[in-house]
Amino acid sequence: MRVGVRLPPCAPVGEVAAAAVTAERLGFDEVWVPDSQLLWRDPFVTLAAVAQATTGIGLGTAVTNVVTRHPAVLASAVRTVGELAEGRFVLGVGVGNSSVEPVGLRPSTQAELRERLAVVRALLAGEDVDFGPVTSSLRDPGTAPPVLMAASGPRNLRLAGEIADGAILLSGISPVTLASSRERVAEGALAAGRQLADLQLVVSTFAHITDDLEKDARQLKPICAGIAQKGGGPALALAGISVQVPERVEGLYPDLVHAEDWELAVERCGEWISDADVLRFAQQFCLFGTAEQVRARLAEVEQAGATSVFLQHVGSYSLPYELMDSFAGVITSGWATER
User: Given the DSSP bridges, would you call strands 287-289 and 166-169 parallel, antiparallel or unpaired?
Assistant: First the structure.
């Protein structure tokens, strides 16, 4: 199982590229860059710089979308990064929540994802595509990268298994949700005449090494509340967390998970998420704990069938140097020998 880290392009591109160089030096296998045009720098420009600054680390979007990015524009961006990072790039695509909502658009539907991803793949394969009044193709398409679909709900997990080269699982590392997600992806793969073993299963999780879990877990309250707000209540209920969060929380821009004022978000989310709730969330869904505890959890994630896991730090507007430094020993020593 590969271990990666999420690098939000929250700083000048050169600084993000330098963080990727650090990730590669510390032994991480992959870096993942999210796409949200009002919050961060452009992910494809950033990944182009990262590709030129690094030598072997894997690169991916986690995730882009097919709403703010027309399939033809997306295909061209993917082709360009693929040329700079030959054999290292993976295209992660989702419904586009944090990209579409701040500009008044809606996340893509299943039908739109299916149709528009098919267009992207056809263009990258050099095929002619019907765009209504015209038929066009992508010049010099190059080698198409694997396409992974981000999903948490059962319907989208099945769709990922059916139409993508794998899934980015957004429900954390809870053993129960991992097993359920894996089954849904397998159902989609079977419907398309494929096997689960043919697909990549990438797990996204918030991570932090700490000797004071009760204290540090409180920083996860906006994450937990955001999951509940976006329909993740059933998954949280599996850990004994039963909460109701308003559809919109005023005063936190742009949303709970990406709040600019994180301390205010933690305080506000305390209205719905208790300290006990968020402690259970950290223990069940996140890689929070001592180095020994996170090593054991990583082993469990691998045994659950994940091909890759990428770590996220809390907050969207800083680079995760502390996270990378604290996890470097875990991924290159004790846990690596157990693999």
Answer: unpaired
CATH code 3.20.20.30 region(s) in the chain: 2-210+290-338
CA angle 65, 71, 73 (to 5 degrees): 95
CA distance 133 to 18: 45
pLDDT value at position 239? Answer: 86
Q: Can you give the chain as a three-state secondary structure string?
A: CEEEEECCCCCCHHHHHHHHHHHHHHCCCEEEECCCCCCCCCHHHHHHHHHHHCCCCEEEECCEECCCCCHHHHHHHHHHHHHHCCCCEEEEEECCHHHHHHHCCCCCCHHHHHHHHHHHHHHHCCCCEEECCEEECCCCCCCCCCEEEEECCHHHHHHHHHHCCEEEECCCCCHHHHHHHHHHHHHHHHHCCCCHHHCEEEEEEEEEECCCHHHHHHHHHHHHHHHHHCCCHHHHHCCCCCCCCCCCCCCCCCCCCCCCCHHHHHHHHCCCCCHHHHHHHHHHHCEEECHHHHHHHHHHHHHCCCCEEEEECCCCCCCCHHHHHHHHHHHHHHHHHHC
pTM recorded for the entire structure: 0.96
For domain 2-210+290-338, the question of CATH label 3.65.10.10 is answered with no
Q: 332: pLDDT confidence band, cut at 50, 70 and 90? A: confident
